[in-house]
Amino acid sequence: MELNPLKQINPVVVASVIVIFTCTYYVLRKVFFLPLIEVMEKRHERIQNSQLQLTEAQRIVGQAEKEASEIVAKAREEADSISRDMRERIEEIRKAGIDTAKDGADRFLEDGRKGILMSKEAEQAKLRKEAVECVGLACDKLLGKVETNTVESVIDKLMAKRMH
Description:
This protein has one domain (8-163). It is built from 3 helices and no strands. The mean pLDDT is 90. 93% of the residues lie in helices and 0% in strands.
């Protein structure tokens, strides 16, 4: 037995190994590598499309957020305007109510004053009449017959001094 490795190589075995290796390569390439490469390329395309869609979606969302913030700002501004208008209207209504109440109170007060004045005048007339009677009776008893006009003028002078 010879120990030289080059002499131990059998060309049939080497040729069979090359044929088996080539067949295995083509079978693996057809069955495994090409479908795997195709799947990886499709996946890569989907990833790129998804990234483009993501970029577009982010742009749309950014634009929508900007529009939403503008809408919210306009809505706040409009709400503030409505609130101001309502406060002004409420203040006007309140002032009108106060003015109406003041007018009513003034009328009521004036009517009350007129009523009191009428009552005062009626009471003064009644008092004058009673005073004239009493003084007239007292003068009749003390002095005898006295003229009613004289008694009335004295009572009127006395009442005028007392009332002022």
